[in-house]
Specification:
Elements lengths: L4 H7 L5 H11 L7 E5 L5 H7 L3 E6 L2 H5 L8 E4 L2 H4 L7 E7 L8 H11 E12 L1 H10 L4 H8 L5 E2 L3 E2 L5 H7 L5 E9 L9 H4 L2 H14 L3 H4 L4 E8 L2
Parallel strand pairs: 1-2, 1-4, 2-3, 4-5
Antiparallel strand pairs: 5-9, 6-7, 8-9
Helix pairs in contact: 2-11, 7-8
């Protein structure tokens, strides 16, 4: 087992992802001594991080991904989808994490209902979602691909291997999903506003660059103008007691 996250991400050809995780984890730094569900846990990187100080259950549908998962800290891993959610007890989790998952599934309403059911009063749901405006920024600035940017601007979709087509949804869609539940959006934050736009790859290998980029990402992550153009939005919802 690989204990070092940087080494693990290098093996997955995803070292750039370290900034994503650092920003998300900092935005969720208040999660301690709680019972946490990570739904759509992927390679287990977030589950392992929070398992250091929490009781974590991870659910992931893809067996091959689970076999390659990162587990420096111990957490319980289940292979499955909504069927496994339905087996969990009512009011049994303090936090539900669902990061970059809902774009690829159809039963969003059913999943939110299960999240709501298993969440304790005053519990938190953390949703990380793709933001199409951020993708358009990346297409124009980083890739210099104006044609695809216009395609996306006109409502086009993209595919991200191996997950498939990204079915974008916005904050109003989330509001509609929870309208029959006693739940409210607490805040929306930005993730990946600047770092994916940097074209000088040599800079990205410098530790100083990573630290400075992390600092500015955190500074703008709660400013509306930057949230609107960030690659990801981080939506935090609270179950009202």
């Amino acid at each position: 087992m690989i204990d070092d996250l940087n080494t693990y991400l290098e093996n997955l050809n995803s070292k750039w992802s370290i900034l994503f995780y650092r920003v998300v984890w900092e935005q969720l730094s208040h999660i301690n001594n709680l019972k946490v569900l990570d739904y759509g846990s992927g390679f287990g990187i977030t589950a392992s991080h929070f398992a250091k100080n929490n009781d974590v259950l991870a659910i992931e549908p893809d067996v091959e991904t689970v076999e390659k998962r990162f587990c420096k800290n111990n957490y319980k891993q289940i292979v499955g989808e909504i069927d496994q959610l339905k087996k969990l007890k009512d009011n049994s989790f303090d936090v539900v994490l669902c990061h970059n998952v809902l774009e690829y599934i159809k039963e969003r309403k059913d999943i939110f209902q299960e999240f709501y059911r298993i969440l304790k009063p005053n519990g938190i749901i953390s949703i990380v979602k793709h933001n199409p405006l951020g993708k358009i920024m990346e297409k124009v600035v980083y890739e210099n691909n104006v044609d695809e940017a216009i395609y996306l601007l006109n409502g086009g979709t993209i595919n991200i291997p191996p997950f498939g087509e990204v079915n974008y949804y916005n904050i109003n869609d989330i509001i509609d999903l929870v309208k029959d539940m006693n739940i409210a959006i607490e805040k929306v934050l930005g993730i990946k506003t600047f770092w994916a736009l940097q074209q000088n790859h040599e800079l990205k290998n410098q530790q100083d660059w990573e630290e400075k980029m992390f600092d500015i990402e955190m500074k703008v992550s709660n400013i509306d103008e930057y949230i609107n153009i960030s690659y990801f939005n981080h939506v935090l919802l609270k179950k009202i007691s």
